[in-house]
Prior knowledge:
By secondary structure, the protein is mainly α. Helices cover 47% and strands 6% of the residues.
Amino acid sequence: MVVIVYLTKDEFLDLGFDEVEDFDKLEKRAEIAINLFLNGFYDFVDFEKEIEHRKKAVKLATAFQVAYLDVSGIMTADDKQSLSSVSLGRTSVSYQNSAHSDLESARYNLSLDALNALRSAGFGYKGVSYDR
């Protein structure tokens, strides 16, 4: 697996996210989840030469993922699957008994915002092309 730094701390802050402790660790975890969702796409495509709107989507998804990891403390998909609920202040999130328990966000431990950012650039499309 090729290690690509999608987002710097300065870019994270420039996107309007709050400062997080241990940014480097969280950013690496975020990249792992995104790379798994992308099936190692950037192992074969040079990220720096990628179309600008796709680069921006990956950077934004990484930022959302870093913020999500920082707030939730859920670092792996296994953690997310094994937890029945998480309480953050007055907010409680239940992952069990959900009608959408097989969501890709849970499968890859992606925040919904990160998943939406990636999908907005065409990642994760699962259509079938019928060429006649």
